[in-house]
């Protein structure tokens, strides 16, 4: 497989393989995946090895739980504020 680097004034994207898909940093991948439902997370383990590694990491699991708790609290506050208006 060959890889090439494309540069512009705004960003640098590394393109790997013959598909031409940009390689995203693991941190960005995790930030996107953390917002998905658990069932989707389970399926995305099979997408590629790098996603499986991100999804299996302790950092991602901690981030996923924290994001879920914060989302539940936000929904609870929104509903509670409607009750007392």
UniProtKB/TrEMBL annotation:
Residues 18-67 form the F-box domain. It comes from the Eukaryota. InterPro entries: F-box-like_dom_sf, F-box_dom, SCF_F-box_component. Pfam families: F-box. SMART domains: FBOX. This is F-box domain-containing protein. It comes from Aegilops tauschii subsp. strangulata.
